[in-house]
Amino acid sequence: MSQIEIVEIIEQIKQEIEVDADGHGKASIRATARLAGVSDMAIIKALESANLEPSKLSKILMDYGFDATNQKQWRTNGIPDTAIAIILEYYAFDAGRYSTKQARLVCRSFNTIGIRAWIQDKLGWTKPVTPNETGMTQIQLLAALAQQLAEQEQYLLQQQQQQTQILARLKAVEVEQDRVNTPCGHKYSVVGFANLQGLEISVKVASAKGRKASALCRKQGIEIERIHDPRFGKVGLYPESVLVEVFKAEPN
User: What angle do CA 81, 82, 87 make, to 5 degrees?
Assistant: First the structure.
């Protein structure tokens, strides 16, 4: 979950929030659940438990003055902005294994000025301006901050993609330099080259091709390297170009 996705979710639930003439905001249970990154039913069950055996979330809401009657009414009347802030904080930090990264991100964004100011802005509610009030409003500052966070995240994603592309190009350059620095091509044993081509050859055939490759190397003045092999003792390493000629002339 990223800040860009949070911005998208906020736009999707815009129709499920409202603000009254005094600037008090509220949102539906579904909208609140989307912000918290949990299911509608999780919040509904937590609120409905208030009349019987209150859940941890329900008890926290009661501690802030929202009794069982309040919580029951929210299912039809919407959740007030102050309660939304409490619910988001619960799912961000106090819900144990049910805590969500999304709730923490939303809390971090909204804590700058509060849920109420955000709802006011989304619904176009503005506080009457006095002659002494100048500069940007709090919600304008939050909007600018949210936009800046989204742009920064997009920039970081682009930088990561560019870095991956650069590393891939550097690797390709290294491979090409290695090839250029080895005029006869990379060197392989006969069996190793056969495996590279997806071919299966017997020990007898490998030995015959090895002799042919050795003869071509001597004819072209190419030094034959020898390495230890646990099966055959010492085996020769031949340039790729020589092995291509041998396998082409004497197919398996």
Answer: 90
